[in-house]
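Bug: token stream looks shifted between consecutive jobs. Job 1:
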Amino acid sequence: MWRNSTSGWGLTSILLHWLSAVAFVGLFVLGWWMTGLGYYDSWYNLAPWWHRSVGMLLLAVTLGRLAWRFMQPTPTLPGSRLERFAAHLGHTGLYVLMLLVLVSGYLISTAEGAGISVFGVVEVPAVVTGLPDQASLAGMIHWYAALGLLGLATGHGMIALKHHWVDRHDTLKRMLSPRFVQARRPGGSSQD
């Protein structure tokens, strides 16, 4: 139930997928909102602190998610060879953009040499600092990568709905419930 199989996603992958989706959307909305805050606004310092803290946790989750993905089988995708190739490119693009957004956010926050406090519990050290125009360049990459990620993720969701409603594939169901996958395995056996 926790691990993937060739017939579907396990609960670990499903939870990481949806946790990441909610966190990225939340960070995008928070980031957009906080850029309009004035100096005397009560959220002027608090919103970026939340944004950086959640961003660093999401970076750790994304790296864990990638490691999990490499250690687990990938469920077989329905559709033609071209559709499966497009899905592979799309998923690769999503991961590349996620990492670009997260790493560039880290580089913005550490440009002056200070680490990032994650909810006041742990500090992520500033490993790369003082590059020419580091904050500006990283900020530009952060913004455009976030827009690209939002666009690609929207397309990803729309294609999942197309597979579900038009093609009648079980792609969406497999990302919603490992029970659906378990019921489809030969003999209904769990591979946990």
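Job 2, same session, no restart:
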Amino acid sequence: MIQETSIAPWLEPLWEGLDLANFPNAILLHGQSGIGKFAFSIELAKALLCENTSSAVKPCNQCEACHWFNTGNHPDFIPLVPETHRKLLPHADYEGDDSPKKGKAARDDDSESSEKKEKKNISIEETRHAIENLSIGSHRGGNRVILIYPLEMLRSDSANTLLKSLEEPPANTIFILLADRVDRVLPTIRSRCRLLTAPRPDRAQGLAWLKTQLNNISGLKMSDADIETVYDEQGGAPFLVLDSLIARHNKDDKDELSISIQASRYLLQSMAQGIRINWLDTAEKTHKAQYSFLLASMQRWASDLQSVTQGGIPRYYPKHLATLQGLSKMVNIERMLQFWKSLVQARRHENHPLANRIQLEALLSQYQQIFKA
């Protein structure tokens, strides 16, 4: 039995079902983005590295190993994440090269944003360096944990390097692999891992957790109605909603998430215009945001529009019911379905778009055609 920790309440059943004494060499934790998988995996890595043998409660947060982990300096914890995600690591600071620099805490809202564009892929050099060092043995004589997040962001050459280690795992080495989209992970990698599905919370549970977190943030005041609106817009992913609201509160014009939120709002305002949408202008004003973020917003809007057109209710944008009902009267169902297929296809390649603005122009132009007689 593992102690109850800061794990999100909807993930506690998954946490309680883990057996640290008989842990597999590799797990693949998958589920919707923004529901707490990364925080879960960090706590799990710490529990697997905890050296307290006198208690069944892990992590103990008292032993030397837990101390090293909490300060971001445990030599047997190897995180492989792209530059865009390194701020999520516990007490980690990076100075722009391929190797981690220890220091600041994760989610440090006061950290300076880099002027250079951060890489979104885990480099093959970094992967090879980590894999090659596995033959040396663990520094503290216990477990060694490699965390890879998000797994689907691995380049094919990096994925093949990982696969070789999964086929012949080094002694006392545990791989914690995380994926938002398990369908994008190589079947050969999936087959060598124990699959764990991270559930999304029900709306009441997710909102209760979110409001508790927001109450602990000084100066961040929002009405319950506004919180619920953002919660629905972000697909019921509490951690993503929390990050969104913090970014909005900080008003950081250079923060990637803040930029994406603002662009997404403008995108949806444009899509609400239906046939009157100025798709060239919309693409021009939104293309610098995260392409995946924009596609997700478009897909949610399209999903609600389809639902209302078929007599249902909107899931993501209930506040825009009247607008959606008005648009639904002009929808060409066949073109709507074709637009949906285009969105699904675009999402398969969202991490490697050839040109964001051109892709957005094509999709928004197609969206306009939905409403033409």
